[in-house]
Structure formats: C-alpha cells, structure tokens
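Hey, can you fold this?
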Amino acid sequence: MPRNHILVGTLPVIWRRFLVQRALTTNIIVTLPQFASQSMTLRAIALAAVLAP
C-alpha cells in the first residue's frame, strides 16, 4: 500500500513536467510564423531551438 501511494504521488509530477515541455514546444511552433516575417535569421534560430534535442 505505501509503495503504491508513492507511485501515485510521483506520477502527477512527471505528467506535469511533460505537459509543460509540450506546452513550451507548441508555444514556440505557434509563435514561429509571427517572427518569420520579421527576420529569416530569427526563424532559423527558433527552428534550431525546436529541433534541438
């Protein structure tokens, strides 16, 4: 029982971290076209940031 409780406690932390990571990536992809009109260099940097592991 205690071991199961620890697992349930750590799961939301991992899930929240995954969601934050996904939200940041989506945010970069959404804002990318807005920056694209301003500068090609900025687009290249943003694209590199998204594709970088």
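Oh, and this one too while you're at it.
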Amino acid sequence: MMRAPGETRDDQEEQRLTEDQVRALYGYGRELRLEEGDYLFDEKGVVDSFYVVVGGEVGISRLDGAEETRLLTHGPGEFTGGLAVLTGRRSIHRARALSPARVLEIDSETFRRVAVEQPAAADAFISGLARRMRVTQRAFRQHEKLAALGKLSAGLAHELNNPAAAASRASEELGAGILTAQLRALEHDARFSPEGRRRLADLLGEVSARPTATPDPLSLSDTEDDLALWLEDRGVDEARDLAPTFAAAGVEERDLEGLSTPSEKELPGAVRWLAGTLELTGLTQELSVSIGRISHLVGAMKEYTFMDRPVRVEVDVVQGIENTLTILGHKLKGVAVARDYEEGLPKVPGNGGELNQVWTNLLDNAADAVAGGGSVRVRAFRDGEAVVVEVSDDGPGMPPEIKGRVFEPFFTTKEVGSGAGLGLDVARRAVAGHGGDISMHSGPEGTRFAVRLPLEARTRNGG
C-alpha cells in the first residue's frame, strides 16, 4: 500500500478503521461498486459525502497543470472526503478507483450524526484528517520541488548551449590559425634550408591529418622511451621532454628520420619546432574535446529534461537511459557499465522527464552499491505488451531487514546529508503513474531492479 512521504506504518494504521467500525457504519450509508477509473469526486464540484474504502484501492490526486500528481492511495478501512464535508468547500483533490473497488458512501447530514453516535470512529476520522493534511501537503511540496528542479535544469541547459557552441567554433578556428601562423613563420626561419623547411611542413601536415587514437598507457610509455633514446643518440638536448609530445601525436622514428636527411645540424632545431607546434595544436585539440564534452552534456540535459516537448509523448527508453548515463558519468567513473538493449525496442507512452528520474535513481543507487568499482548492467527488452528495464549491480546486496523498506519514503541507508530517502519512492510513484510496476531482488550476488512499462497508455495518475 502506497503511503505519502513522511507517513509511517503506524500513522497509516491509526488512519484506518477497524473491521468492527466499518461494519457499524453500514447502518449509516450505502455501498458503491466502482470499476477501475471511476471517479468518486473531483475538483469541479462540492463533495457532499464521506467515503470509506471497503475493498480495492482508491487514489487521491491533485491536478497540476495537465498532469495529475498522486498523493495518497487508500485501501480497505481508509477514508476520504471528510474535510470537504465538514467545511462545505469545493475539493482541491480528485478521487478515483485504481482497481475494482467497494466504497461505503455516507452523506454529509448522516456523517454529522455518525460523529455523535460513533465516538471511536469519529476520533479516528479527526486524527486521521489532521495527519492526512500534513502528509498530503508534504507530498505536494516535494512534487513541486522536483518540478522546479527540472525547470532549472532545462533553463541551465538552454543558457549553456549557445556559449558551448561558440566556444567549439572558436576552438576549431584557433587550431587552424595556429597551424597557419606556424607555417608562415617557418617560411622565414633561417635555421633551416629550403628543403628542411619543406620536410618540416610536409611532416606537420601528415601528422595533423592522421586519425587520433588513444593507445594504452603501457604502449605509450614504450614509444616515449624509444623516441627519447633515438633523439639522445643524435645529440638532441631535452630528449626526455620532447618524446612525450611526439608519442602523444603519433610521431614515429621513421618520421623523424626524414628531418635529419638534409642536414644533421638542422635536426635539433627541427624537432624542437615540430614539438612546440604539435604541443600547441594538441592543446587546441584537448580544448575541442572538452568543449565537445560540454556540448554533449548540454544536449543530454536537454533530452533528459524533455525541454520544449509535450508532457506525454512516445518515449525512447534506451535514449533516456543513455542520456542519464551521460549525466551520471562523474559518479560512474571506475564502474564498468554493461549495456544490453534489445534491437528495435518500441517506444512507450509517457512522461520522459519522469522516466528519466526513475533511471537516475536506479543508476545512482547502483553506483553507490559498487562504491566506485565493480560493474553495473542495464538491460532493456520487450516482454509481451510491455517494455522491461533492469538495472543490476554486483555489490554486496541488501540485508534482509532492509529489503522490505527500500520503497518507503524518507527511508535511506546513506550517511546523513547524502540522501533524503525519496529516490525509490519517487521512482515507484513515477512508474505507477505510467501504469507499470517496479520490483527488486537482492542477494549476495548483487541487487537488481526491474521496471515494467506497458506499451499502451493506461496511466494511474502517479506523481
């Protein structure tokens, strides 16, 4: 049974009528039978009856723009409508059946008589209403905070987009400008013969045109040693300082051999000029890569927040997961992330921003579980008329006493200040709002969360 944030099992038990109390109330009202989706009331009118759930589930939600935010789910023995009946005001919430349900309806006049003739039930009503108001307001405030965070992220992505694009263009122009300036200066460099200048220009052009590859550290170290020895054998000072630049740029011994052909005397100056130029162009390339990373993050953020898109769309689950992995890249450093996506996976109807919050919470928890090492596996596949996403880790698993509480709001095993305990509660609400479900299995081999999302839109008004 879903509880509102901050509501404990004890709170919920105190807000539920006993079976004897429910039986006693049957003499004051009539039983309604509801199908899934049937409304008891909404915010359009005045609530003139008090309702006690006898069987099934009834969800209480609040309209937030075009979306409904689920605040509470009532099961047998729980009740709703009391505050509106007592105040005679229009309801700000809506209530409808989440499954086939039986509800006892007591009109407003009779409800006042119940308060006198059934004191135990009346006490439960009043105390329950007081707690309900607190936890409902807390739940809606939490939703508003999450919505504000999403808008802030979208705005930040928009503001960063233009500067990042400008920096990327400037970096490309800077790299080209450095090459042009160096080559023009080389034309007038008296240290080299015309043939020496031609060979330097040709080698620079050849090296610059080579595809960049990142060799493994051991191979790179071996190449640096070989180049340093080659330069030292030919009397080049600072050979150990020049070798790393050449190795990083992909320069080989045979490339440098060509520079010594016109004159051995020109070689020291030639390798210094080449190393200096390659170091400058290498810095611009590093700048371009960093700016490209920023642009990629900005793009991922825009996709992540579903900026400038309708709230309900056909959502590409895999793209959402990939954008989330990009956003969480800093936290997943040192973690081996394995992907297993079924080819041609269909899109699911829903709110892309909410689903990305689900992936964020699951991947964030998985990263915490492996503590900067180990592996995380993300799997997405079709199962009948649903898409299933599994996020698993090879961490130590959860103790038995923790497993049953992971979806409770405000429950966390993290250190104080590291988490509010709302992540999995938010995830479960979002999944339920898409008509899906989320489950968890944990053992010594690790933890696996599975999210099942229907391919047909049948939302249950999650927040």
